[in-house]
């Protein structure tokens, strides 16, 4: 099985993962392989297709398959008939990866991220807020990407929050790709039946970086973008809201870890909100607003220090 | 016998189901005024918001990326989420939807009985919907007539991008309404927009009785007065209405009935009749 690198660890997979960079041969940290996975009928929690327990996450995805993530080092999948590779890979790199990160005590934050000369800048927001498009704008300014959709976070020896890079590919809708001046010819699709594509990026920063700032991006009815610091009292809640798949934390007995991580992040990292118009805004303009706003805030802090 | 919503453990949702521009926002304002009589009606705080159709909520519940699933694939996840949402609520919980009543091939309902106490189905003469919908969307009457005949018509659905709201299949006007009237998962209270115009208080009382809400006559009367077209239009002008698609076009446009036959050409009206005569007759709209 070939090895791949993602979030700082080595993954061996019996299913091709075309968007992940290949890694050197050797003992992997995580193995992804087809195998038997028990069903999720009769789960303790009703009305749900998944269950999270300490070091064990199990889920059934309609028309795709059953998945088991265990011990922070193994993902087993049972593919349903007619499910194609893209459907299975989408789950592996999405929900399963989030469960795996938590089992490995890496906080998954629903955010894109880039490296600046003063550390990583993360942009978090709900699906549809414009994270990927904003990422395109930041990269157009020459900033190397660290993550497209989920950034891993760990803490350095001094408690400094560190951004862990994901993989060197963005996922963009055809509309956004074309507006950024890119075509879709030859690009692998995220799903065979969707006009959303993986686009490999040249500008990728593969090492962990201290986090310089986190920006909460939201779409509003406002006619102009508005960038401002988030009130202190709201910062922990804001970060907690964007822990990816935060519903897993209770079952994994990691709720305290998740909360403590969010508190530790806001103690060290400034948090801002960018309220953007819900219509199309040039990605580079959004990116410039973010960077200028962060820089202005840092200037103010230095001036009053 | 007047139908009644059926409240049981887990069955707490009363769906406010309608094809777009049929008057459901007005009904929501009336319900809000009834349930919160001490407060002025705030168009941005109406009961019945489509909370279960927020993409982020479904994604978190089902641990999926809904953007990577087709509308049909999402149905089973949404059905589970509706049951989970309804499970811990005390009915009635009003939730608006423009979706048709849909099911998977193996019988999973998008609006499951086990989550649903009932549905208030608001309908309006399709001849009158055309002008209102065209204004709302900034499109021509012909484009709207074609959309109203499109059984695959969707809302918040694009092939190349996503919105914060989940996509919904609204279907064609006839299919949308028939799907709700013909389903057997939950009782239905049918409300005609024209009947609301003619006697708002009587229509509102019928909705409240269906929903199991017992209010004094004075409260209902004050709600009717607070939600006149003039007052809602003024509220929109003053405070805006976040749910409308354009901030430059008014949401509350005319508040009348019967203007469709005057606004449409003979050809346009004949297209509506040809596309929808069966359901129009069923609802008492002259064919």
Automatic annotation (TrEMBL), chain A:
<protein>
    <recommendedName>
        <fullName>Serine kinase</fullName>
    </recommendedName>
</protein>
<dbReference type="InterPro" id="IPR027417">
    <property type="entry name" value="P-loop_NTPase"/>
</dbReference>
UniProtKB/TrEMBL annotation, chain B:
<dbReference type="Pfam" id="PF00685">
    <property type="entry name" value="Sulfotransfer_1"/>
</dbReference>
<dbReference type="InterPro" id="IPR000863">
    <property type="entry name" value="Sulfotransferase_dom"/>
</dbReference>
<keyword id="KW-0808">Transferase</keyword>
<dbReference type="InterPro" id="IPR027417">
    <property type="entry name" value="P-loop_NTPase"/>
</dbReference>
<protein>
    <submittedName>
        <fullName>Sulfotransferase domain-containing protein</fullName>
    </submittedName>
</protein>
<feature type="domain" description="Sulfotransferase">
    <location>
        <begin position="14"/>
        <end position="276"/>
    </location>
</feature>
<comment type="similarity">
    <text>Belongs to the sulfotransferase 1 family.</text>
</comment>
């Amino acid at each position: 099985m070939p090895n791949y690198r993602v979030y700082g660890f080595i993954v061996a997979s019996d299913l091709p993962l075309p968007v992940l960079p290949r890694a050197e041969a050797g003992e992997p940290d995580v193995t992804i392989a087809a195998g038997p996975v028990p069903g999720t009928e009769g789960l303790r929690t009703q009305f749900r297709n998944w269950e999270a327990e300490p070091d064990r996450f199990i889920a059934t995805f309609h028309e795709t398959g059953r998945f088991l993530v265990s011990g922070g080092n193994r993902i087993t999948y049972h593919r349903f008939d007619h499910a194609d590779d893209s459907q299975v890979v989408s789950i592996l790199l999405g929900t399963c990866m989030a469960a795996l990160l938590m089992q490995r005590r890496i906080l998954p934050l629903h955010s894109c991220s880039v490296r600046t000369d003063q550390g990583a800048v993360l942009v978090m927001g709900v699906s549809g807020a414009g994270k990927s498009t904003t990422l395109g704008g930041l990269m157009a300014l020459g900033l190397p990407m660290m993550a497209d959709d989920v950034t891993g976070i760990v803490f350095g020896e001094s408690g400094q929050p560190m951004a862990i890079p994901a993989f060197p590919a963005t996922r963009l809708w055809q509309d956004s790709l074309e507006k950024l001046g890119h075509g879709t010819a030859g690009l692998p699709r995220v799903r065979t039946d969707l006009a959303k594509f993986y686009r490999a990026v040249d500008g990728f920063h593969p090492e962990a970086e201290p986090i310089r700032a986190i920006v909460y991006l939201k779409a509003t009815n406002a006619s102009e973008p508005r960038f401002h610091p988030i009130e202190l009292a709201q910062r922990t809640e804001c970060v907690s809201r964007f822990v990816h798949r935060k519903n897993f934390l209770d079952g994994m007995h990691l709720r305290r870890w998740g909360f403590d991580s969010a508190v530790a992040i806001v103690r060290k990292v400034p948090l801002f909100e960018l309220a953007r118009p819900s219509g199309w805004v040039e990605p580079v303009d959004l990116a410039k607003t973010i960077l200028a706003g962060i820089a202005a805030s840092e200037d103010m802090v230095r001036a009053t220090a | 016998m007047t139908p009644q919503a059926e409240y049981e453990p887990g069955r707490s949702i009363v769906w406010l189901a309608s094809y777009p521009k049929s008057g459901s926002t007005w009904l929501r304002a009336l319900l809000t005024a009834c349930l919160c009589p001490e407060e002025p009606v705030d168009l941005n705080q109406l009961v019945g918001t489509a909370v279960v159709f927020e993409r982020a909520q479904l994604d978190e519940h089902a641990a999926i990326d809904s953007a990577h699933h087709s509308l049909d694939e999402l149905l089973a996840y949404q059905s589970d989420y509706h049951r989970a949402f309804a499970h811990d609520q005390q009915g009635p919980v009003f939730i608006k939807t423009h979706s048709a009543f849909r099911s998977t091939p193996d019988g999973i309902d998008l609006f499951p009985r086990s989550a649903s106490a009932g549905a208030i189905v608001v309908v309006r003469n399709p001849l009158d919907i055309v002008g209102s919908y065209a204004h709302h969307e900034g499109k021509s009457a012909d484009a709207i007539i074609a959309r109203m005949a499109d059984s695959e018509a969707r809302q918040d659905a694009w092939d190349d991008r996503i919105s914060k709201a989940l996509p919904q299949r609204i279907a064609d006007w006839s299919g949308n309404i028939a799907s709700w009237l013909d389903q057997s998962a939950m009782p239905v209270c049918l409300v005609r927009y024209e009947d609301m115009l003619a006697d708002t208080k009587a229509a509102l009382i019928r909705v409240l009785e269906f929903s199991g809400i017992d209010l004094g006559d004075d409260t209902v009367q004050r709600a009717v007065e607070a939600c006149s077209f003039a007052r809602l239009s003024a509220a929109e002008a003053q405070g805006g209405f976040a749910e409308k698609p354009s901030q430059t076009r008014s949401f509350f446009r005319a508040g009348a009935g019967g203007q469709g036959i005057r606004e449409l050409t003979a050809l346009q009206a004949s297209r509506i009749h040809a596309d929808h005569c069966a359901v129009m007759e069923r609802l008492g709209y002259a064919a």
